[in-house]
Every structure is written in structure tokens, then in C-alpha cells.
Amino acid sequence: xxxxxxxxxxxxxxxxxxxxxxxxxxxxxxxxxxxxxxxxxxxxxxxxxxxxxxxxxxxxxxxxxxxxxxxxxxxxxxxxxxxxxxxxxxxxxxxxxxxxxxxxxxxxxxxxxxxxxxxxxxxxxxxxxxxxxxxxxxxxxxxxxxxxxxxxxxxxxxxxxxxxxxxxxxxxxxxxxxxxxxxxxxxxxxxxxxxxxxxxxxxxxxxxxxxxxxxxxxxxxxxxxxxxxxxxxxxxxxxxxxxxxxxxxxxxxxxxxxxxxxxxxxxxxxxxxxxxxxxxxxxxxxxxxxxxxxxxxxxxxxxxxxxxxxxxxxxxxxxxxxxxxxxxxxxxxxxxxxxxxxxxxxxxxxxxxxxxxxxxxxxxxxxxxxxxxxxxxxxxxxxxxxxxxxxxxxxxxxxxxxxxxxxxxxxxxxxxxxxxxxxxxxxxxxxxxxxxxxxxxxxxxxxxxxxxxxxxxxxxxxxxxxxxxxxxxxxxxxxxxxxxxxxxxxxxxxxxxxxxxxxxxxxxx
Length: 509
Fold this sequence. Notes:
Blueprint: H1 2-23, H2 29-34, H3 41-68, H4 73-101, H5 106-113, H6 120-152, H7 156-203, H8 211-218, H9 233-243, H10 253-261, H11 265-297, H12 304-308, H13 315-323, H14 326-361, H15 370-398, H16 404-428, H17 434-453, H18 462-468, H19 471-488, H20 492-508
Helix pairs in contact: 1-7, 1-14, 3-6, 3-7, 3-10, 3-11, 3-14, 3-16, 4-9, 4-11, 4-20, 5-6, 6-7, 6-14, 6-15, 6-16, 6-17, 7-11, 7-14, 7-15, 9-18, 11-13, 14-15, 16-17, 16-19, 17-19
């Protein structure tokens, strides 16, 4: 046990040191929220992808690999496609426009893009960020408690609080720069750990081991890309839900904050291949961990939940302890915490920046000097984090059968449905209007709630909504409503002004 604690202590020490170094560059709101727009391509790429993956990857996706088998690789395909479009198609135009508008938050960009003359768009954006980011952070804190409970046999609530305290400390000290630097370190830990585990486990197998045949005998659905029963409407809905998880990369504020903060468009060009390779490696490795765990630890007639926990989310720690000595188990505790903390810290900065800059400063015209604005953001970070911790503890009692995978996906889906369709249309459609943007946000927000808690309970269609989860219907509904409202109530002046902005950024190169 001492080996595990030694590695974890070293890990936390590195995070705090990075936070202290980053603190030297935080002198104002811009420094706290976007790190002075000075990120290099390495830091931006690792930080963006580490933030986008979270505990959902190491505990949730590995569990899905064990429960579903090969069909879980649809998650990998969807994520890679989503990251490709974010970095190769959307990133450069978003960066050029946000620099043109001098934006430091997603809400800043939207208000400038639509030349909003009221606070409705700003307020809706901020509220949406606050609500779904709160849920998302709560899911990550929940995973922290589960990680400490499983790896170190701590009480769940003690583990959740300890992890929470460390991530809040370095986020508050160093702001966005600390988050980006620590994300880079944590992303490296995630890649190293995830790629190594299935490779080492596979090399330990003997010549008599036949993974495919054994999995097929346990459950034929494990070796089918469509799941048990082959291609059916229900399996198609499940696959669609997994594959479209990658839609969340197409405009979510916590991911696109890296495009806001990166030095230049040229850095995006350099970083996009790193982001794509990172996603492919960690996602494919996570599913492989689950598949190998199902092969090694279950037999015909075995309930995987009994062996690998609820949603099979204990498959990674079980495989780690099977393959590696204690000192390396500590590295995997650090890897799980890396996935969690990289996401929590990023979301905290996004939420605190939105409250301070988008509501307090912009809506109430409150002038804050450089140091004061950073300090207000720090206090709001602490308050918001405490709210998320309280929500986590409440949910741990109310829903003891929850799984990390779907808890995280609900928060991720909400953020994506509210922002991604709107960001896509605002970047590439001159006819998109402020009214359309507001309608799209409201539609995405409402459909996320309805799909999760109302439509999923309806007898005929309910099982399909459960299989798809909330991302596909909420995203599509938001997109359609935003389009229809913009067509019905066009704004020619706004469209002409957007054309002028595009010409400006095109001339700049």
C-alpha cells in the first residue's frame, strides 16, 4: 500500500507545483480565464482532449467495453470523427473570429457574432453553462470517490472530498494556465497508462488463449459490432447513441476554450494531429481494457456486474491489479485521477469565468480592475465547486445504482445540445440569427431534460430514448429549431455584417 501512496503523493505534488508556477501569470480576468491567450499547440491539444475525456473514459468506457464487447468501439469512431471536425474544420475559423471580437469566453463570442442588443443570449448561455457544468463536475467528483474506494479501500465520501480539495486548490491558485499545464501532464499520464495496460495484458496471454472464440462462447453479442442479436432497431439506437457522443466536441465551451486560449491559428494546425492521435489511442485502449477484462474475469453464465461492479466500471482497477505490481497500481490511480481532475478544473474555470465576466461584469456593467477580477473569479470557483460537491453527495444517496458512464453523459449531452448546434451554425451559416441562436439554446436545454426524464418513460418509444440517451435527440432538435426560427425571422443586416467579418479574417490569413 505504501507504494500506491508514494506515487499518488508525487502526483499531487506535481499538480500543486504547476499551479504555483502558473499563478505568476494571473494578473487579470484574461489571465485567469484564458491564460492570456498564450497556449502552445502541445498544451492546447493535450489539455483539450484530457478535458473532453474525463473519468467517463477510464471508468465508464472501460466498463462499456466489458459489458458490450466489440460494439463499444463505436464510441471510438464517434469520438475520433468529432475531434477531427473540431480541430480540422471548426477550430481555425473559431479562433480567427474570437480574436477579431476580442472574446475571452464562449458567451463573448456569441454576443459579438449576433450583435446582441439585449442580455437574453448572454444570460441563457451563462445559465446553461452553470446548470450542466454543475452536473458534469458532480459526476467527476463522484468518480473520484469511486476511484479512491476501489483502489485504496477508502470511504467513498472521504475520497471524493480529498480529490475535490486538491483540484480546487490548483485551479484557484493558477487559473486557466494552471489547468492547461496540469491537463498536459495528466493527459500524458492517461496516454501512457491506458496504452500500456491492454498491451501488457495481451502479451501475458499464453498460446492457448483464444480471446475471440472465448468471448463468443461467453456471449455472441460481445464479438458483434451491433451487439447481441445483430442489427436490430434497438441495437441501432444504442450504436447511434454511442457513436454520436463525439458531437460534444463540436463547440462545447470547455473544449473550445482551448481554441480561445491558443496563441495562433498556426498552433491549431500543429496541434490537430496530436489531438486526433491522443483520442484514437486512449479511446481504443479503454475499450480494449474492458474487452480483455471481460475475457479474463468472466465465464459462461457469469454476471459481469457481480465480478466487475455496477456497469463493469471496476474492470480497469481489477485488470491493473492482475497485471502490475503495487507501485504501478499507484500510477493507475494517478491516471484515473488525471482524467477526473483535468475535466473538473477546466469546467470550474469555464463556470467561474462565465459568472464573473459574462454576468457580473458585462450584464451589470461592474468595472473590475485586473487583480480584483481574478480574485472574484477565484472565490466563485470555490463556491461553484462546493455546490458541485454537495450535489455529488446528494446523488450518492438518492441514486446508489448510477453508473459513471451515463451520469457523465447526461452533463456532457446537456452542454453539447445547448452549444454545439449553435456554434456550428454561427461559424458556417451567414443566415443564422440571434433569435435562432436563443431558440436553439432553449430547445437543446429543454430536450435534454425531456429526453432523459419524460420521453424515456413512454412505453413504445421510451426504450429507444434510453438506448440513445439524450445527445442525438437533443442535438438534432436544437439544430432544427435554430434553423427554422432563423429562416422565419431573417436578419439581412446581421448576415451582411458576418460576411464582412469573414472577409476580414480571410485577409488576415
